TrEMBL record:
It comes from candidate division LCP-89 bacterium B3_LCP. Phosphoenolpyruvate binds at K22, N23. Belongs to the EPSP synthase family. MurA subfamily. The modification 2-(S-cysteinyl)pyruvic acid O-phosphothioketal is found at C121. One of its GO terms (biological process) is regulation of cell shape. Keywords: Cell cycle, Cell division, Cell shape, Cell wall biogenesis/degradation, Cytoplasm, Peptidoglycan synthesis, Pyruvate, Transferase. The gene is murA. This is UDP-N-acetylglucosamine 1-carboxyvinyltransferase.
Amino acid sequence: MDKFVIEGGKPLKGTLPVSGAKNASLPLMAAAILAPGIHTIENVPRLRDVRTMAHLLRIIGARIDFEDGPSSVPSLVIDTSDCSFCEAPYELVKTMRASIYVLGPLLARFGKVRVSLPGGCAWGPRPVDLHIMGMEKLGAQIEFEDGYIVASAEKLRGDTISFPIRSVGATGNVMMAACLAEGTTILQNAACEPEIVALAQFINAMGGHVKQAGSDQIVIEGVDQLHPAKFQNIPDRIEAGTFLSAVATTGGDVTLTNLRSDHLSVVLDGLERAGFSLEIQDTSVKIQSEGRAYPVDMKTAPYPGFPTDMQAQWIALMSLADGSCTMTDTIYTNRFTHVAELQRLGADIRVEGNTALIRGVEQLKGAPVMSTDIRASASLIIAGLAAEGRTDLSRVYHIDRGYERIEEKLRLIGADIRREDEPLQV
Ligand code: EPZ
């Protein structure tokens, strides 16, 4: 397993392009199942999770190739003409929960599917009951055998589906199933994330009729069939927020490009309230940072609220703030595995329920720490970049799932970070 070695204390300077969104890429790739033929999705990041989804689609029968698109932005060419194996095996699903996204498209196109239940993750159970509820409302018969969801339907029929809580995955999965159903489907209390809007736009590019995506009520007119399409993926708002937090925490002057500033307004607002000066354009943000952040209390919420995927990074930033503040995660109530590792670097943080109480310290000191999930790893990189001395971050396969060559990107703006083979622990 690889590790990162970080020498902290160096300000970050320069310009950095943001990659395509991981959390849009995965449902977009699954949606290609809906229309047999050759699809092109531009601006897909070369991530571990994208490779996992590509592997799953190949198991189902698709052919997939990465191509270098315009200005060497990577594109995926996906041929779903010969898809036929309607199964997502446990060995794969257990490594990536987003594999569940093939449930809706396979059910809509083939009328039968067997998908492993995903199990949990580093911070607890990750249920899929809302995905299943949505498929049942569309007329699917659902059974469970040997840890698999077995779903079948002669023809899905539109209905009104009201989600008790906002779920990005369930909204996307049911939207994909509904676009080939008979009649109209209305999703109430739907997720409003930009990744859902992108998915709806791709489905519409295939000839689908999805309206009001981005609002909490989405209307889908089912069609008989869809055709392959070409689509440009949106930028990754969480990668952008992560790099902005790194500059704010470490100090420096960096411009991020190829982003959508309207997708991360609440993060930009938080950084300004923390005292950092930003120059905000539609597709770029310049951040200048010297001195410590002001403490800013934050609470995560469904989009357009503060993203739970930025919670760990924000805690890293606030661990060096000039005062105390709180971070409350209302989406995942125990997503704080990064706190114990940040404490090893000298952070003064206490967790009570789903709230972290952060008392800012003057300095963090480098130490060996361990990744536990994608965003916890990002938080530890941010803290390591700001800490005095050397930080060794182990198990970086977690971060490779969600960030494209993060150490190379950080080196481009002056960070002293390198990837090393981690000797087998005896
Ligand atoms: C997506 O996960 C993202 N993953 C997550 O990002 C992100 O944290 C999450 O949305 C919330 O924004 C991808 O898009 C691949 P949810 P998802 O369904 O769809 C509960 C990252 O780091 N729930 O919106 O799985 C659930 O437990 C990852 O990139 C049910 O109870 O999240 C949670 O409390 C981590 N039943 C809440 O809803 C269900 O059937 C929101 O989850 C589904 C979800």
